[in-house]
């Protein structure tokens, strides 16, 4: 049952992902991206990461994409005319096919099989402690420094956006 | 004081940098020349201090190695910027800085008003620095840097008057010949390093370490090859057969340069190098024989050429080549002390001679210039009778000439006689000794002849320039004559530190001084030299007397030919025109080289150019160039400027890499 | 409810980053009150910040390990990272010294420049001292985002915009690879700590057969290769270098590359030694490709900034040679080389910047005709930098190459060293071509617009000293580099 459900969501994710690239109207691309994000959120739920799913929906699908759609509407971007991707279709195809083969081979496990390391954070722990708390804990213990660096990163991004975009600085 | 040995090369370096960077702006000759001279003089003072301290130490402790900074360490290979102070290098730094200071001082007067005055002094300081690196270098790499540096400075200074084509050509010739020698030096270095390292795991280029490990070296074999390569390097730098022809041409440079670089210091680098590595050379008897023979041959060969030259500096140049031959003869027979001794005395009297000739040329140039004459100021046929006009120059020149001719009581006698005696008595080359001695003796005779010929033609007889010019003949200023007087003094008395034991008046300080340096080499020599016949004092006395007689004969011939009956040379020339032409044209050696090496190279070159080159090489070179250009163009085209192309190339890279690894 | 065990917060381990970030934030505030024509003062303030940052770096040298590591092993400020931090500070300081003149000339002297440079430097430092993949990644992002902005800093110039945008798009693309590689590595080993990965691999040697781990390693390699501009991930370099404001080109050609190498070295040598045969083979190919592509394309470039961009690709190739060698000599050589590269490359860009003027970048090699006669001292400085780039003694570039190649030879990579030397010989052509124009062509221009400000002169002086002194006296610096090697 779960596998079947996964297959459906995965299919939707792939199709909507392709639509992001293929759509000529930017609004349609943006909306397809939102669908993709929802599918990702679904995956998180299936991976027993409800907090991540919620964040995915709230931040990406909710905040960021809304902003993007606004921008597109404000800039009044029109449907793209003219042809695209005429340059490297052959090379692109080759790369695509190769990538596909590699991915299939990779996930089939190749010669050794795919085995990851398992740590203490299994289903049981997540159910007992709660996902949000676990994330919070690791963020303030193991990943305290990365967490702090993120704030710097955001600062740089803000400054950069201002420098590049503001009319008069 | 020993700790401060690094100051010695540093001072001239500072001077060179100062004049090189600021000299053009300063323009004040007194400042430029003064600073350059002061710098080298500071080095001289430090050298004196070091010498004093060395003298104060017991003989066996007179070795000091100073690592200024670690330089290149890479696995087995280790080369520090290290200086080695021992009796040998102490003598060398004294000569280089002492004579160097005098010549710097002299240059201030001589180069007065020359264009590029600052350039000259910058080069001169740079040369002094390189030469000091060469003699102080504690390992072969430091020495090699000095070795290359002096070659470069010599090139720059020979080509100082670069607008003159002959100067440019001479500079090029010197550079190319030196490069041939340097190549030999490098191969020798690698051979020795590699052999010691791979066979005995002694990976070193440090002199003291090589000395310690020298007992591991075999007699002959690979050592012969290495030392022969080193000797090729020495022939290039010290102008020995076959690489000597650059030195006479090097006289295109300013005269003080000829005195410092092409007489007193740089050209003796080959002799010094052999002395520094005596413990290696001695292990190759065949190389020693080659050195002795080449030295003797060069001595007589250059001496004969010297007899027929009319350019005052050329005579001195051939004389230098000849005297260097004597030094190599000494090295070749294992008489290292005698070779270094002659190196030192030669530095005194030859520097004095060159500076004296510079003084003469200076005066002649001045006089001729005033008289608007276009005669060559360097041609001795235009001179004559200058002793009255230039007394100081004359006296110092005469004293030095007597010294080089080998008249007892003057420095040259002690050193040259020591070499000749060693060539005869040292049991190194068995039956060859008598020939080596004979050749040397005849060369000494020639030396006395052509040197006095020079003196007679220049300072005696009638003045051959116009009366108008004659009025303008003056003695040179003090800044020129002071160095002459100092050097003249040394040319007389410099030899008393190394008086032969035989004369017994003074102990042979010089030999005792250098004994610890060459002790190892002498030890090795004992093992394969069967103690030769012990020569009696009577024989030594006899030979000494003979060499005096020989010198006197040479002088007498010169007197007869150029003072008593000056018509004889002309008649001689008329009787043996072919011989005279041959000697005058330096035995056609330049032509021979042209014929043997340069023309074939040119012919081969033009043949290859017309036939091989155009068809094959051009094809290949053009092909390579075209391929590279094509490749370059292709890569440029790949750089299309489209982001998606770039991304595509990245993606392709990733996919290929992953495919390679997971499908392996 | 369990209590939250906060990790030991050891500020000593991140002191340089902390100071730089604090100065950057302060400058952002100060910037508001500084008038447009006086933005140079921000530069001086940031220089003071950099000078202050040198203190913890010097003080931290050879510090006990408990002072060096912090945050549950997320950072380790060992000698290795301190050496690299020194390189970053030097390159940031030199770039700041030459920035103001250019930015004023081009009319884009916005005060945000200096905080961005400082934050980018902090990012590089985190890459060098990070021992957690997350720290390395975030450091790289911090650096990259700042660089994207700096590349496009000249907002009114199309080329600069293009450079910023291209760098951003391709950088984001490559970041994807890096992050995916890290994720796979995490999946395979269950930890993001470098020491943890090494320990896991040591405990489970069979893991090397796991494709997840293998592909993770490869993708991380790709991500780092983009940052150091190794072929075939180098294509962004010439366009970005050409378009970016020249001082920023100088900055991004040195620091980020060094940071990339620092992280690359640490992750691969410490976390992934089990894959050494694999990654050294991969890097062998990349090194050859990078050197050759860089040099061959540089041969016929007319634009000197593009030429130096390709040359910087080639230099990444030389450094990769030292990486492939994987021994102490090669690694010390890398560090020595990156430091001297900072001096010589920024020095060269400083001269390029001077030759240009507003609206006329004068970036063509032919524009340098007779430059050596018109400005002998600047010509001399440029010659020194070019000699060093070409690897001719006695410049530092020679010594660096010497050690890198001798490291390769000692590790048995004879052919790689030979290819490197050949490439180095070929590179002489295009460096000397500039000198030929400088000294053997008659001047076309008078170069009278050229003004050397004190800051600029200081930068050139330091750069010349930094090229010549280690070139002539390499021993001390090399000893330092050897002590900084982490194995």
Question: Any key phrases for this structure?
Answer:
heterotrimer, A: 169 residues, mainly alpha, Four Helix Bundle (Hemerythrin (Met), subunit A), 3 domains, 75% helix, C: 487 residues, two-stranded antiparallel ribbon, 20 helices
Notes on the structure:
The complex is a heterotrimer of chains A (169), B (664) and C (487). Chain A has three domains: 1-82, NADH-ubiquinone/plastoquinone oxidoreductase chain 6, subunit NuoJ (Four Helix Bundle (Hemerythrin (Met), subunit A)); 84-113; 120-169. With 169 residues, chain A is mainly alpha-helical. In chain A, helix 1 packs antiparallel against helix 2. Chain A contains seven helices and no strands. Chain B has 664 residues and is mainly alpha-helical. Chain B is 74% helix and 3% strand. Chain B contains 27 helices and two strands. Chain B has helices at residues 7-26, 29-56, 87-110, 117-136, 140-158, 165-200, 207-213, 222-238, 246-249, 255-264, 269-276, 278-281, 285-306, 312-332, 336-370, 386-389, 391-405, 411-425, 433-459, 467-470, 478-493, 509-528, 537-564, 567-575, 577-584, 589-638, 643-662, and strands at 64-74, 77-85. Chain B has a two-stranded antiparallel ribbon. The termini of chain B are far apart. The mean pLDDT of chain B is 81. Chain C is built from 20 helices and two strands. In chain C, a hairpin with a 4-residue loop joins strand 1 (69-70) and strand 2. At the A-C interface, helix 7 of A face helix 1, helix 5, helix 6, helix 7 and helix 9 of C.
């Amino acid at each position: 049952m779960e596998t079947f459900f996964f297959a459906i969501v995965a299919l939707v994710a792939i199709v909507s992902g392709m639509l992001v690239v293929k759509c000529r109207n930017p609004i349609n691309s943006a909306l397809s991206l939102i669908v993709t994000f929802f599918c990702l959120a679904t995956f998180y739920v299936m991976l027993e990461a409800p907090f991540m799913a919620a964040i995915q929906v709230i931040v990406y699908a909710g905040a960021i994409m809304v902003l993007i759609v606004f921008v597109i509407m404000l800039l009044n971007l029109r449907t793209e005319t003219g042809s695209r991707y005429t340059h490297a279709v052959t090379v692109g195809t080759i790369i695509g096919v190769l990538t596909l083969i590699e991915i299939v081979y990779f996930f089939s496990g190749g010669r050794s099989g795919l085995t990851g390391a398992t740590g203490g954070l299994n289903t049981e722990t997540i159910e007992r402690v709660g996902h949000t708390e676990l994330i919070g804990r690791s963020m303030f213990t193991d990943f305290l420094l990365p967490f702090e660096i993120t704030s710097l990163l955001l600062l740089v991004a803000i400054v950069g956006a201002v420098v590049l975009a503001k009319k008069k600085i | 004081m020993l700790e401060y040995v690094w100051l010695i090369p540093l001072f001239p370096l500072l001077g060179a940098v100062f004049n090189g960077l600021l000299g053009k702006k300063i323009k004040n000759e007194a400042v430029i020349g003064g600073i350059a001279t002061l710098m080298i003089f500071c080095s001289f003072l430090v050298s004196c201090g070091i010498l004093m301290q060395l003298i104060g130490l017991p003989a066996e402790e007179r070795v000091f190695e100073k690592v200024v900074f670690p330089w290149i360490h890479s696995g087995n290979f280790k080369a520090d910027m290290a200086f080695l102070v021992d009796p040998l290098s102490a003598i060398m730094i004294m000569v280089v800085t002492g004579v160097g200071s005098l010549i710097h001082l002299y240059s201030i007067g001589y180069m007065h008003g020359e264009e590029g005055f600052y350039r000259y002094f910058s080069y001169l300081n740079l040369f002094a620095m390189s030469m000091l690196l060469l003699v102080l270098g504690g390992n072969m790499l430091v020495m090699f840097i000095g070795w290359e540096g002096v070659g470069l400075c010599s090139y720059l200074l020979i080509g100082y008057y670069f607008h003159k084509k002959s100067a440019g050509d001479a500079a090029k010739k010197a550079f190319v010949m030196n490069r041939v020698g340097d190549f030999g030096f490098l191969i020798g270095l690698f051979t020795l390093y590699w052999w010691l390292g791979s066979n005995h795991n002694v990976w070193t280029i440090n002199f003291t370490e090589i000395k310690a490990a020298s007992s591991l070296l075999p007699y002959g074999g690979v050592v012969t090859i290495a030392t022969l390569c080193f000797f090729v390097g020495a022939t290039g730098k010290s102008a020995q057969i076959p690489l000597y022809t650059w030195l006479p041409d090097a006289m295109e440079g300013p005269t003080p340069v000829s005195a410092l670089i092409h007489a007193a210091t740089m050209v003796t680098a080959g002799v010094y190098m052999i002395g520094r590595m005596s413990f290696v050379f001695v292990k190759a008897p065949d190389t020693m024989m080659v050195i002795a023979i080449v030295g003797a041959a060069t001595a007589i060969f250059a001496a004969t050429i010297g007899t027929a030259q009319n350019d005052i500096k050329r005579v001195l140049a051939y004389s230098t080549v000849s005297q260097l031959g004597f030094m190599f003869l000494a090295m070749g027979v294992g008489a290292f002390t005698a070779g270094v001794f002659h190196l030192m005395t030669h530095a005194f009297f030859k520097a004095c001679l060159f500076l004296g000739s510079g003084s003469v040329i200076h005066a002649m140039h001045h006089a001729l210039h005033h008289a608007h004459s276009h005669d060559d100021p360097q041609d001795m046929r235009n001179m004559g009778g200058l002793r009255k006009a230039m007394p100081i120059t004359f006296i110092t020149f005469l004293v030095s000439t007597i010294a080089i001719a080998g008249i007892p009581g003057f420095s040259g006698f002690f050193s040259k006689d020591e070499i000749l005696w060693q060539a005869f008595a040292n049991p190194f080359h068995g039956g060859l000794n008598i020939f080596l001695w004979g050749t040397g003796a005849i060369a000494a005779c020639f030396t006395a002849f052509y040197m006095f010929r020079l003196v007679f033609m220049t300072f005696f007889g009638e003045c051959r320039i116009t009366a108008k010019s004659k009025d303008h003949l003056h003695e040179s200023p003090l800044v020129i004559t002071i160095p002459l007087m100092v050097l003249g003094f040394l040319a007389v008395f410099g030899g008393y530190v190394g008086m032969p034991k035989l004369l017994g008046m003074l102990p042979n300080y010089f030999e005792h001084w250098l004994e610890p340096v060459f002790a190892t080499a002498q030890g090795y020599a004992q093992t394969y030299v069967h103690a030769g016949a012990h020569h009696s004092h009577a024989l030594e006395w006899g030979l000494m007397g003979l060499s005096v007689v020989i010198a006197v004969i040479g002088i007498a011939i010169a007197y007869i030919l150029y003072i008593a009956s000056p018509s004889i040379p002309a008649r001689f020339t008329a009787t043996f025109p072919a011989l005279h032409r041959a000697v005058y044209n330096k035995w056609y050696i330049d032509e021979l080289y042209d014929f043997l090496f340069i023309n074939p190279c040119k012919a081969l070159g033009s043949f290859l150019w017309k036939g091989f080159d155009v068809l094959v090489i051009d094809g290949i070179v053009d092909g390579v160039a075209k391929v590279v250009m094509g490749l370059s163009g292709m890569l440029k085209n790949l750089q299309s400027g489209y982001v998606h192309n770039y991304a595509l190339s990245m993606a392709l890279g990733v996919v290929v890499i992953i495919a390679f690894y997971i499908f392996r | 409810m369990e209590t939250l065990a906060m990790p030991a917060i050891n500020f000593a381990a991140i002191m340089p980053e902390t100071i730089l970030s604090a100065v950057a934030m302060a400058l952002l505030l100060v910037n508001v009150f500084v008038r447009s024509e006086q933005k140079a003062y921000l530069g001086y303030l940031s220089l003071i910040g950099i000078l202050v940052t040198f203190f913890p770096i010097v003080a931290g040298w050879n510090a006990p390990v408990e002072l060096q590591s912090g945050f549950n092993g997320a950072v380790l400020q060992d000698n290795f990272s301190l050496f690299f931090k020194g390189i970053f500070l030097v390159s940031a300081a030199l770039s700041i010294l030459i920035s103001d003149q250019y930015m004023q000339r081009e009319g884009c002297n916005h005060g945000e420049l200096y905080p961005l440079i400082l934050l980018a430097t902090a990012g590089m430092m985190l890459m060098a001292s990070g021992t957690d993949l997350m720290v390395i990644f975030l450091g790289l992002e911090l650096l990259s985002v700042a660089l994207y902005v700096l590349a496009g800093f000249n907002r009114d110039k199309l080329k600069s915009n293009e450079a910023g945008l291209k760098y951003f798009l391709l950088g984001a693309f490559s970041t994807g690879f890096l992050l995916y590689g890290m994720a796979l590595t995490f999946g395979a080993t269950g930890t993001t700590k470098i020491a943890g990965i090494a320990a896991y691999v040591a405990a489970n040697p069979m893991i090397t057969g796991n494709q997840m781990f293998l592909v993770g390693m490869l993708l991380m390699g790709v991500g780092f290769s983009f940052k150091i501009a190794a072929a075939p991930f180098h294509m962004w370099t010439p366009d970005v270098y050409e378009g970016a404001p020249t001082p920023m080109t100088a900055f991004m050609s040195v620091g980020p590359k060094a940071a990339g190498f620092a992280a690359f070295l640490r992750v691969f040598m410490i976390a992934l030694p089990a894959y050494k045969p694999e990654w050294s083979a991969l890097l062998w190919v990349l090194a050859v490709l990078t050197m050759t592509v860089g040099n061959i394309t540089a041969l016929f470039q007319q634009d000197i900034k593009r030429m130096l961009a390709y040359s910087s690709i080639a230099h990444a190739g030389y450094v990769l040679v030292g990486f492939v060698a994987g021994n102490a000599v090669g690694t010390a050589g890398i560090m020595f080389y990156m430091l001297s590269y900072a001096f010589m490359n920024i020095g060269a860009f400083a001269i390029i910047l001077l030759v240009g003027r507003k609206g006329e970048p004068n970036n063509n090699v032919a524009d340098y005709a007779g430059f050596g006669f018109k400005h002998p001292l600047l010509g001399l400085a440029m010659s020194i930098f070019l000699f060093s780039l070409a690897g001719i003694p006695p410049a530092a570039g020679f010594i660096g190459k010497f050690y890198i190649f001798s490291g390769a030879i000692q590790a048995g990579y004879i052919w790689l060293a030979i290819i490197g030397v050949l490439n180095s010989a070929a590179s002489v052509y295009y460096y000397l071509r500039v000198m030929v124009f400088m000294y053997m062509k008659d001047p076309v221009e008078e170069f009278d617009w050229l003004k050397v400000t004190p800051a600029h002169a200081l930068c050139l002086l330091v750069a010349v000293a930094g090229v010549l002194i280690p070139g002539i006296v390499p021993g001390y610096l090399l000893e330092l580099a050897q002590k900084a090697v982490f194995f």
